[in-house]
Specification:
Blueprint: H1 18-28, H2 30-66, H3 77-95, H4 97-116, H5 118-123, H6 129-162, H7 175-180, H8 183-203, H9 206-227, E1 235-239, E2 250-251, E3 256-259, E4 264-266, H10 279-285, E5 287-295, H11 300-329
Antiparallel strand pairs: 1-5, 2-5, 3-4, 3-5
Helix pairs in contact: 2-3, 2-6, 3-6, 4-8, 4-9, 6-8, 8-9, 8-11
Length: 331
């Protein structure tokens, strides 16, 4: 690849101060700024509505339902369904943020400028390529971190408000709930910004960088989702052969039977000792209890913070590659 030569620096009297560069970036990306502000405001308002009036109405409706003793008693089913629908939509809105950020960063923030050659125009204003890239990333990174952080905080509070009161509330280990309500999504959004910018620098085409940025975040999300159960030591929980395996929490792998010698064997899945046909099977296996390797609720924050650290490490690598690429291309 042919290296690009950065234009010579202008005299000191012609150098553009940092505020001028910042104002230029805001003016250039003003539509994206407006869209981001609208997305944050609308989603935040929805989450406040979800965690307040909608939760109160759904809790009251579930109390009515649980108090029913006849088939004809009435309860507010519409409030229960509305809470469920709004929760799902709000969760999706929070989770889609990293993908939108990556696509925008690849297509508009970096890719379009390299495609049109406006990056060289910035360099003629005594802005070095490294400083240009830093300025392009600094303000979006701040806004993305602040906005996404607000949304995941409000989502976590809205989810917490319905716990142990709404029968159909999602458990903490539900995949979408886990990501939408924790700092790992903030890290994913920041990584999406850097991955999109890197895609724009490599591909130098807005449409191609848009797709590459979104694909990179998708791959990272799938990878961290697969690795998540293994980022923190599990707890082995034993339970009676009469009660069945204890699966309350994030189950890692499969559950099975524990023998009197401490060995683990596969669960024959015949129904436990309460089923007459299953008792001889349990005796032949010398089973004494069910076991399950799980993450209990107390592992919520260790998993969140460990996953966040991994994603931020990927973000740091993407940023390092992006700056080295700019330096290499501009000599």
């Amino acid at each position: 690849m042919t290296a690009l030569t950065a234009p010579a620096a202008a005299p000191a009297s012609a150098q553009a101060p940092a505020p001028h560069l910042l104002r230029w970036l805001i003016r250039l990306h003003r539509p994206a700024l407006y869209i981001w502000a609208a997305l944050v405001v609308v989603t935040a308002a929805t989450l406040l509505w979800l965690g307040g009036p909608l939760t109160d109405n759904a809790v009251a409706a579930w109390r009515e339902y649980n108090a029913c003793r006849t088939a004809t008693c009435a309860y507010d089913q519409d409030s229960i369904l509305l809470y469920k629908d709004v929760y799902n939509y709000a969760t999706f809105a929070v989770l889609v943020v990293p993908f939108l950020i990556a696509a925008w960063a690849g297509a508009s923030l970096i890719g379009r400028e390299l495609e049109n050659g406006t990056d060289r125009l910035a360099w003629t204003q005594s802005v070095s390529p490294a400083r240009w890239l830093a300025a392009k990333l600094a303000l979006p990174a701040t806004l993305v971190t602040a906005g996404t952080g607000l949304l995941v905080l409000l989502h976590h509070l809205a989810w917490s408000a319905g716990q142990r009161q709404i029968d159909t509330a999602k458990p903490w280990h539900d995949s979408f709930t886990f990501y939408a309500g924790g700092p790992v999504t903030v890290a994913l959004a920041l990584t999406g910004l850097l991955a999109g910018a890197l895609a724009g620098l490599v591909l130098r085409r807005s449409l191609a960088a848009l797709g590459a940025g979104a694909v990179a975040v998708t791959a990272l999300w799938l990878g961290i989702n697969q690795a998540l159960p293994h980022l923190w030591p599990t707890v082995t929980r034993l339970s009676s052969l009469r009660n069945g395996p204890s699966l309350e929490g994030m189950v890692v792998g499969d559950y099975g039977l524990m023998t009197s010698s401490g060995d683990r064997v596969a669960d024959p899945r015949c129904g436990g000792v309460l089923v007459s046909e299953c008792r001889p099977v349990m005796e032949r296996l010398d089973a004494t209890a069910y076991y399950a390797d799980i993450h209990p609720a107390s592992h919520y924050w260790p998993l969140q913070l460990t996953a966040t650290a991994v994603v931020l490490a990927v973000a740091a690598v993407a940023a390092l590659i992006a700056f080295r690429l700019v330096r290499r291309r501009t000599g």
